[in-house]
Amino acid sequence: MTNRDDLVAACDRLLEPERFKDYTANGLQVAGREGVARVMTGVTACQALLDEAVAWQADLLLVHHGYFWKNEPVTITGMKRRRLATLLAHDINLLAYHLPLDAHRELGNNAELGRRLGFTVTGCADGVLGEGLVWLGEPSSSFDAVGLARKVGQCLGREPLLIEAPGGGEIRRVAWCTGGAQDMIATAFEAGADAFISGEISERTTHLARELGIHYLAAGHHATERYGVQALGDRLAATFDLEHRFVDIDNPA
Prior knowledge:
This protein has helices spanning 4-15, 47-56, 78-89, 99-103, 109-117, 145-156, 185-190, 203-212, 221-224, 227-240, and strands at 2-3, 27-30, 35-36, 38-44, 60-65, 93-96, 120-124, 135-138, 161-163, 174-176, 195-198, 215-218, 243-246. It starts with a strand and ends in a 7-residue tail after the last strand. It contains 10 helices and 13 strands. The model has no long low-confidence stretch (mean pLDDT 97). The strands form 3 sheets. The protein has a 6-stranded mixed β-sheet with strand order 7-8-10-11-12-9. Strands 2-6-5-4-13 form a 5-stranded mixed β-sheet, with helices on both faces. Helix 2 (47-56) links the parallel strand 4 and strand 5. By secondary structure, it is α/β, with parallel strands linked by helices. Belongs to the GTP cyclohydrolase I type 2/NIF3 family.
């Protein structure tokens, strides 16, 4: 059994949330019981994940998308009330890390996605590694846009939406940023990337990709952000001798 505050402090030391200007509160969002033996991880603290945590008798739920986002309604009603009531009724802690878990150079979503896709990391387009969000790298094999899309689909178990830039050719430099980072495509282009991988796509993204001349792959917000929280959960389990279980709540977006 591990003390909750010791576990939270270890996460804060590892992820350094104070270095990020985020849209939500990072760290312990809802306090539950002090003793932690079972940690469940997931992408988003939706009701389905909360129900899994209750059924498994988790002591702490660790997620990438928690609650209390900037500009959301502050009233505790409806869906928000049901979610919080579930946590409080079962004394479950909710621990959430957003941008710090995207950016972490070893356990973050970008680091984990790049590792799974076999990219050799060469830097970051919008800051130093560990702080910036648009990662740069080189593929381990020779790909054109269709081949890269096939590789991403095989890795994530989800076929990405590919917007091919005119001209085609071999992809020598890749940029990626998990989640909803489609508007960072210009940053990826300016860094010299031939292709940019993120989670979502907007109407404007298609025109940007075609006119800038950079391939764009929308691989799914949820699909690209499944791995950082798993890596963090595994690290906590090994460090504190905890039981860890990741639950993937299906989400096609």
